[in-house]
Amino acid sequence: MKHTYTNQGNSLIIILIVLGVIIGGVLYYKGAKSEKDALEASLPSSFADTNTSPVMENASPEIGAEDTMMEAAPLKEFAVEGKNFEFSVKEIRVAKDDFVRVNFTSMDGTHDWRVSGYDVGTAVVDTGKSSSIDFKADTVGTFEFYCSVGSHRQMGMVGKLIVE
Ligand SMILES: [Cu+2]
Fold first, then answer.
1. Cα(151) to centroid(ligand 1), Å
2. Does the global pTM surpass 0.90?
3. How far, in Å, is the centroid of ligand 1 from the Cα of 6?
4. 141 in the same domain as 120
5. Angstrom distances, CA of residue 53 to CA of 2, 17, 41, 61, 62
6. Number of separate domains in the chain
7. Model confidence over 32-81: pLDDT tens digits?
């Protein structure tokens, strides 16, 4: 008799626990759903309509601005022209860890712009064509930049990249 009573007591506790879990689950689901609805309701002016409504692009310029990588370090940009057989810029000086962009244009002949010791360079371009290269100046030192076409380097198509 006592044994049976104990079992009934245990069953009641189990039923209460199961009910609690079910009720808790329903409440959690509703809560999550309303959070999701609230999130979606706050989005139309930014993410939700970005793909379908180009007009909205200017409405949310602040989105992602804080995450922009370009703000991490300054971008130092240089325009370099090449001809037979010299560069318009003989020396490029930057600070360590600067992001460097070289916009190279051939004014006459087929040339490129490469940095010895950095293993970076533009494409080889013909007269009137341009090519750009981006790199991070992460190694301090003085490096020779040069044109890798034919014997242009030996003929004087060189300069100095100084990272300090
Ligand atoms: Cu050249």
1. 8
2. no
3. 95
4. yes
5. 73, 50, 17, 14, 17
6. 2
7. 444 444 444 444 444 444 444 444 444 444 444 445 555 567 899 999 99
